[in-house]
Amino acid sequence: MKLISLNCNGIRSSLGKGLSDYIRDRKPDFICFQETKATQEQIPPSLWEEGGYTPVFHSAEKKGYSGVAVLYKKPPQKITIGLGDPFFDKEGRSIYLEYPDFALWNSYFPSGTTGEVRQAAKMKFLDLFQKEAAKRRKKQPNILLCGDINIAHTPQDIHDPKGNAKSSGFLPEEREWLTQFLEKGWVDTFRYLYPEKQEYSWWTFRAGARAKNKGWRIDYFFVTEELKKM
After folding, report:
1. At a CB cut-off of 8 Å and minimum separation 6, what does 147 contact?
2. Where is this site: Transition state stabilizer (predicted)?
């Protein structure tokens, strides 16, 4: 089974940068998008029809903001949109697909970089997500969670840990939340497979950060301990 997770920072923009070719070349079974910034009606159906996919979108009420989507080939038994919280569900942050032997969860966590109000909202989301994850594991222990978590976990996951010690996305309380999340039986698959590697998934557009590889690892594939053993 092949899965792709991509924060596309605007799926319509990504279409103009070769997204369809990227999918065609790799032929994944699932494609999980974060930060789509669009509704399904705004996307050419050829994006999913060409590869035999079915789309499911969770778009934000606010136009051009947030949003997640999944393209899948095998129909799931059940699809759950959102986390059951009106405040965060209107921002388009969660799609959960249930199959007989596993579940796929695509999520886009809030950022707190715009100030104290959004940072407080982010911490509330983390608490909500932790509780929802525990509930869902009781029903299906084999869960694969992917997405943009907006947290760099350890100094190994960020280019300048000292300089970013007070930056949202690397705050002690956020990192502690992720530590506790992993301790509850989730596995960071990249770190499990590559314990020594220092690689990143996001770079700011400023000051040539990408070319200088001054990045953050804030995008993840997690699996439950039960799924890791399969």
Report:
1. 5, 7, 32, 34, 68, 105, 106, 107, 108, 109, 219, 220
2. 150
The answer to whether residues 2 and 28 touch, using CB atoms and an 8 Å cutoff, is yes
Residue 132 assigned ligand-binding role = no
Which residues are catalytically annotated? 148
Q: Please name the fold of domain 109-229.
A: Deoxyribonuclease I; Chain A (3.60.10)
Q: Is the pTM of this model over 0.85?
A: yes
From first to last of the 230 residues of the chain, give the pLDDT tens digit.
Answer: 999 999 999 999 999 999 999 999 999 999 999 999 999 999 999 999 999 999 999 999 999 999 999 999 999 999 999 999 999 999 999 999 999 999 999 999 999 999 999 999 999 999 999 999 999 999 999 999 999 999 999 999 999 999 999 999 999 999 999 999 999 999 999 999 999 999 999 999 998 999 999 999 999 999 999 999 87
C-alpha torsion angle, residues 207, 209, 211, 215 (rounded to 10): 180
213 is in an annotated binding site: no
Is 53 in contact with 19 (CB distance < 8 Å)?
Answer: no
The pair of three-digit structure tokens given for residue 53, joined into one six-digit string: 């996919």
